[in-house]
Amino acid sequence: MGVSQRVKSRFRKFLQRPGTTINLAPYQKRLPGIEAREDALRELDDAALTAAAQAAGDPGEICAVGREAARRAIGERPFDVQLVGAMALLDAKVAEMATGEGKTLTAAIAAYGHVRLGRGPVHVLTVNDYLAKRDATWMEPIYTLLGLTVGWVTEASTPEERREAYAADVTYVSVSEAGFDYLRDQLVTDVADRVQRTLATAVVDEADSILIDEARVPMVLAGSLHTESDPVHEAADVVRDLRAGKHFEVADDGRSVAFTAAGLEAVEEKLGIDLYADEHVAQLSAVNVALHARALLRRDIDYIVRDGSVELIDEMRGRVAQRRRWPDGLQAAVEAKEGLTATAEGEVLDTITVQAYIALYRTVCGMTATAVHVGEQLREYFNLEVAVIPPNTPNIREDEPDRIYSAHETRDEALVEEIKIAHEKGRPVLIGTLDVKASELLSQQLAAAGVPSVVLNAKNDDEEAAIIAEAGALGAVTVSTQMAGRGVDIRLGGSDEKNRDKVVELGGLFVIGSGRHDSRRVDDQLRGRAGRQGDPGGSVFFVSLEDDLITRHAGDALPPSPRMDMDGVVHDDQAEYAVEHAQRVAEGVNHEIHRNTWRYSVVIEQQRVALAERRERLLTSEVAAIMLLERSPEKAKSLDEDILSDAARSIALYHLDRLWAEHLALLSEVREGVHLRALGKLDPLDEFHRSAVPAFQELFTQIEARTIETFEEADLSEGWEPERAQIVRPSATWTYLVHDNPFGSELDRLISAVGRRIASGAGR
Ligand code: ADP
Q1: 101 in contact with ligand 1, CB cutoff 6 A
Q2: What distance in angstroms lies between residue 367's CA and the mean position of ligand 1's atoms?
Q3: Which atom belonging to ligand 1 lies closest to the Cα atom of 98?
Q4: Which CATH number is associated with domain 225-345+730-764?
Q5: Where are the domains positioned within the chain?
Q6: Which of 374, 399, 395 is nearest to 100 (CA)?
Q7: CA 51 to CA 48: how far, in whole Å?
Q8: Residue 280 contacts by C-beta under 8 Å, 6 or more apart in sequence?
Q9: Half-sphere exposure of residue 432, counting CA atoms within 13 Å on the CB side?
């Protein structure tokens, strides 16, 4: 791409999303002053630099000191663009910086600055444990020189380790661990048990992934619930011996399965019940879920079994989806299928979406390589603006236009041929696929063509990092699904840059997409792996008009017989339009889903905040005891003050937590239910509010009423112990993220199961 083209494409970004990107001039103006100050700082010894760091009070001084500290501590002097990025972060913006531009260092300077500006403690929220630990350890010498403490949290951290990490000025933690800690802290009965301090500032890494793509994901804290019967294992046993074709039929797309009449008969015989009798709804549901688990979810493709538990594989990212569980009993059904002790769903004690969790921070900022395309959403949901930071060295990557083919077969052939040609020259190729299956297929096709390749699939994050680090080596062919959050640098010539010159001569890393993603942003993330820090590189997407994205969203827009050249490449304005159009529609659909979920959660989040305030007061003051002195004076006055205080607090907190859990369960039931009512033409959101608001208003009166009741029944003559009031908190709690149910909600499944039953005439 020529310079003028590059300028144009940069300029286009500003035109595309008016009003969501900011002007960098005010930041750039500070650079000369920073440089002058830097010369003076260089003269100081380390102790004097630390003293200067602790005295810094404005962004210019913060950048000057931060730059000098980074140079001394890790030998990297932050570039001007990194300081501009840091200033944007200090201004609570999202900084868009290309891959390889050094966002880790930029964030560290900003984190230091936020602390100096009185906005600490700072949490740097990462996409996974691996990056939390890596970045904290990497940046630690800089923080030390700046006179700050730093900590990191991973899933394996103990409560003490967490408390210590959160006590630091800056804490690196994955967004899910941070959210889980928040949820657990909301349930403590003693202030000293909390691990987090206040949620003051969040610096969000991979901001678009976390703030937009993962925003809807609920983080769940569940508690053990003792159930007598075990319909899950029973159902797993019942469907285990059923045969495909005879007892059940799997639809062609592999996404749904139904019992045949013979299958139903077999099941009913084994269970000895009429499955469709009203009182057996639970068994019917369990058997259906078990069948889905048995027939549709494949071990080592959809999930793996490791250390006695089922771990989900994220189809898009091609790796273990840490800590995710399928909802609606599906997880337990898969565990039962694998003969594992099913980790009962438990009772949901509390849950919060990623988006709502982030909204709890007073200051939010972030960085990512691809923010502009979600500028509007960042503004809508988080009131965040984007600062587009230019690269330190101009980007000379050559982005070729899409190569469009009319069918999968011709596309795949051309794709393999293209990789083969590049590989034979020794040029490293990184191929991004849409899902795990496509990765595997391509790798087989490559092998058949004599091209060895490495596939990234559900390995752990550390191993993956090592593989990605070598993707720029001479002759490397690496196949991978989504690249976001795989925060590793791809250096030309391999991680040691041994063959850098040769690879540069060959044109640098060649990135190929084997199909367009659901969003342009993800395409850009993939492209962005080439051409890092001014390296040469290239990118191209191979598209088939049979790709899901296109048939689903632009099927009508396709020309009946597109014009093709001799190699089968489509050259047709209408076809090109269809490809772009399909992606825009897909982006629109995702945005709509996001907005819809958000509309429901707004009311829940307001209620959570109100409840948290009440809980805090119960926990840290004597309001519960005062209430009991008023409402149950006789007994309250007869007790020793300390006993009353402890008993009142514990009982009130217990009921508040229980009622909140019940309230959440009610809300999710209502939510499922309103869609049915929506068929009756009422606005489901209105309906939802009509149930949620009064239910919450009653909550506080109920807490009081139940507290009084429990208090009056408790035998407190010999002091306070929870057992005296029959208060039993969950004996064990665990946390997980809710994964999309691959087959739709339980309700959808039941409806379709019933529908099929009617259609197949299996009823009696
Ligand atoms: P990003 O997260 O933006 O993709 P990283 O933070 O992983 O980038 O940094 C990419 C590479 O650039 C790292 O190897 C880092 O050491 C290097 N780097 C970052 N800033 C500088 C700098 N100012 N000078 C030299 N190297 C730098």
Answers
A1: yes
A2: 14
A3: 3
A4: 3.90.1440.10
A5: 5-216+354-388, 225-345+730-764, 398-586, 620-675+697-721
A6: 395
A7: 5
A8: 273, 274
A9: 27
Give the residue, out of 63, 80, 96, 101, with the most ligand 1 atoms within 8 A of its beta carbon, to mutate for a pocket test.
101
User: The whole model's pTM is what?
Assistant: 0.83
Cα 76 to averaged position of ligand 1 atoms, centre (Å)? 8
Same fold, 5-216+354-388 and 225-345+730-764: no
pLDDT at position 152, please? 98
- Where would I find the beta strands (DSSP E) of 143-281? 150-153, 170-174, 201-205, 218-223, 248-250, 257-259
Percent of the chain at pLDDT exceeding 90: 49
186 CB within 6 A, ligand 1: no
C-alpha 529 – ligand 1 centre gap (Å): 13
Q: Strand 347-353 vs strand 218-223: parallel, antiparallel, or unpaired?
A: antiparallel
Rounded to the nearest angstrom, the distance between the alpha carbon of 105 and the centre of ligand 1 is 7
Buried/exposed 458-479: b ≥16 CB within 10 Å, e otherwise: beebeebbebbbbbbbbbbbbb
How is domain 5-216+354-388 classified at the CATH fold level? Rossmann fold (3.40.50)
Burial of 401 (0-12, 13-18, 19+ CB in 10 A): exposed
**Dihedral (CA of 240, 246, 247, 249) sign:** positive
Is residue 226 pLDDT above 60, yes or no? no
**Does the C-beta of 497 come closer than 6 Å to ligand 1?**
no
pLDDT, the chain, mean: 86
Structure confidence by residue, pLDDT tens digits, 673-700: 665 555 555 677 888 888 889 999 999 9
Check whether domain 398-586 has CATH 3.10.20.30, yes or no: no
Q: Which of 155-169, 238-252, 290-304, 587-601 tops mean pLDDT?
A: 155-169
